[in-house]
Each structure stands twice: as structure tokens, then as C-alpha cells.
Amino acid sequence: MGWNSWNKFGCNVSDKLIREIADAMVSSGMQAAGYQYVNIDDCWQVSRDSEGTIVADPQRFPNGIKNLADYVHGKGLRLGIYTDAGRMTCEKRPGSFEHEVQDAKTYASWGVDYVKVDWCNAEGLDPEIQYAKIRDALAQSGRPIVFSICNWGVKAPWRWGPVTGNLWRTTGDINDTYDRMSLIGFSQNGLEKFAGPGHWNDPDMLEVGNGGMNRDEYRTHLALWAILAAPLLAGNDLRTMNAETRELLTNSEVVAVDQDRKGVQGHRVWEEGPLEIWVKPVADGSRAVGLFNRGESALKMHLDSKLIDAQPSAQLRDLLDHKDLGSIKDSYTTEVPQHGVVMLRVSK
Ligand code: GAL
After folding, report:
1. pLDDT in tens, 228-246
2. Which residue of 150, 202, 206 sits with most ligand 1 atoms within 8 Å of its CB, as the best mutation to test the pocket?
3. DSSP letters of 242-279?
4. Which residues are known to be catalytic?
5. Pocket residue to mutate for ligand 1, from 4, 5, 6, 167, most atoms within 8 A of Cβ
6. 173 CB under 6 A from ligand 1?
7. How far is the CA of 91 from the centre of ligand 1 (A)?
8. Cα(164)–Cα(119) distance, rounded to whole angstroms?
9. Cβ distance 166 to 201 under 8 Å?
10. pLDDT value at position 4?
11. Range 54-77 average pLDDT
12. Which residue puts its alpha carbon closest to atom 3 of ligand 1?
């Protein structure tokens, strides 16, 4: 869990922004809710020096990355950085190809805790081989560093990701629309067998709070990502977010489903037209259940106790709205808004 600069700020990153975001992560309650990594995406780097060491943009990061990492660590947070396994990043900054060991050492010496590694400008290279080189370089760097593989699902990274990195993107980029978010999120079904503690499918960073979706759509976004046990990397401006956004991102019952220690990625158990039911088993024996309506109007949905093998006495709790709903009996019926979700926990 953490934050990443790309979805909101693109190339407009700086020392000042990252410090302010770290401050806001603490003051907004995001840190207390479990968000920990402050990740700088593309565009922090400009060149390599005569020894080949990567150089941070001196205008945007005048204090250097080490100094920034110290500041972030001082808040009890962790710092993430970005590179590319190819020759250049997507924004044409130097990539790590043939600098894998050197870059890993540099990041470790700066106190970096997380590295996202992209796949632009990698023509003719094999992702499985290149990402393994980076894995080995990070292992030799002398510092534990979370390794985020970002090759957009090319060459089925779920097959080799578990022995290579800690998380791997499964698709191309998300954007701040319901169509794109839902296309990515609901297409994760079937990949659940590859995920588990320490190695996760990554359906991309959150757009919650960036303004392109309505309240029900953002609730669907967070609930679906939690049922998918997906990395939760907020992508909005934490300094200015409103109460609705803050309450959603820090919803402790939804976050608990995402972070559950059993680490099972949920999957779809039922669908009918635009309606889908997804289930994620959690460590205490209960199930998180998402009743999703991808349709263009509100619709009634029924959760049959037999569908999820629940006793009639199993207790239901609405996790987004923090409400106990009583026992499931034979089935539970509710209206789900257009593009919305009702997210439940069903007790043993
Ligand atoms: C893309 C990546 C995005 C972002 C961007 C930066 O390839 O999927 O998440 O990192 O590059 O240029």
C-alpha cells in the first residue's frame, strides 16, 4: 500500500511534491490506514554521469534522492523509485538495460525501498530474462527492495513473476474512467492462482479521487481491487483530497479485505448480463463478497446462500457502509446502483 505520482502528476514530479505528499500521507490518516510507500514514477532522472551512475534532475530534485529518502523515512514511510528494463524509460530518460547491477547499488545506497521497472524501449529483449537480471541485482544490492514489474502483461508475467518480483502488472495502463478501470479490474478473473503472499498480480494503480468517476464507480474500483488482493497505490493528490475520497481510501474494513493475511486473490463465482458476484476467502474463515452491477441502471441482486456455501445463520456485514445486516437466511437481496457495488463480509 502506498502512493505513486504518475496517475495525477505524470512528469511533474519534484522534491517539494514528494515531501508534501509524505506530509499529507501522515496528516490525512492514510499512513494510519496502512499506506506506506511514497513512489516517484517516471521523469525524476535525467542522465548518467561519467561513471555511468544515474543522475536525478538537479532542478526538480536539488537535494538528491538520498536526502529525500531520509525525509520520507523520518515520517515512518518508505520511498519508491522508477526505472525501465529497456534502454530508455517511456518518457525517454535513461533506462537500466546493461546498468542493472549499478542502478540497484545506487538505489540501495540512497535508501530506496521499492522500485517499479517499466518495459518501454526494450525492442528485441525478453522480459523474463531482463527482469531476472534486475531481481538478481536487487538481491545483491544489500538492501531489501520491493520489486514491481511493469511490463503490462507482455509474455504472461504471472507465469514467471512469482519467482522474479513481488508484483507484476497484468495489463496496459489504467485511466480515470469507469470503462477502463472496470475493463482491467473485471478481466483479472482466472489469474488468482498465481497470486499469494509476497507475489501479487497488479491491475495498476488507483484513480480514486482524480475526478473522472463518480462515487459509486470509485467504490467499485476500491472494492474490486480489495477483493483482488491488489496492491493499493493511491494515485490522487493527497494534499487536497476531499472527505469522500479520504474516507473511501482509508475505509478500514475494505482495506482489511485487501490486506488479509491469507493473501488469496478473489474470483468471479456468478454472472448474469452486467451483474457479477466475486468472492475472496479471508483468514478468519469468512468471505468477502462483491455484488457488482456493471449495467447502466440500478438493478436488484440476490446472493443465494448456496452459491457461497453459507449457513442460513451466517452474518452479513456491509463493509463500505459499516453496517450489520443480520443473517443471510436463504438469500440476501439488495439494489446495486449503476456501475456500483455492495461489498459484504459473510461470516463462517
Ligand atoms: C507506463 C506505465 C505507467 C507509468 C508510465 C511512465 O509504461 O505503465 O504506469 O509508469 O509508463 O512513463
Report:
1. 999 999 999 999 999 999 9
2. 150
3. -HHHHHHHT-HHHHHHHT-TT-PPPEEEEEETTEEEEE
4. 118, 173
5. 6
6. yes
7. 9
8. 15
9. no
10. 99
11. 98
12. 173
pTM: 0.98
- Read off the pLDDT of residues 247-281 as tens digits, 9 standing for 90 and up: 999 999 999 999 999 999 999 999 999 999 999 99
| Half-sphere exposure for 146 (CA within 13 Å, toward CB) | 24
Contact 169, 204 (CB under 8 A): yes
Gap from CA of 8 to ligand 1 centroid (Å): 12
Contact 335, 303 (CB under 8 A): no
Give 348: exposed, middle or buried? Use CB within 10 Å, 0-12, 13-18, 19+.
exposed
Grid cell digits, residue 182: 472496470
157: which 3 cell numbers? 508475467
- Let me know if 323 is exposed, middle or buried by CB neighbors in 10 A (0-12, 13-18, 19+): exposed
Q: How far apart are alpha carbons 40 and 19 in whole angstroms? A: 11
Query: What is the average pLDDT across 152-172?
Result: 98
Residue 290 parent element (H or E): strand 287-293
- Listed residue (20, 6, 8, 1) closest to 71, CA to CA: 20
The reply to whether ligand 1 has any atom less than 6 angstroms from the CB of 90 is: yes
Q: Is there a contact between 236 and 8 (Cβ–Cβ < 8 Å)?
A: yes
Q: What distance in Å separates the CA atoms of residue 120 and residue 171, rounded to the nearest whole number?
A: 14
* 8 Å CB contact between 31 and 77: yes
Q: Which residues contact 47 (CB under 8 A, 6 or more apart)?
A: 55, 94
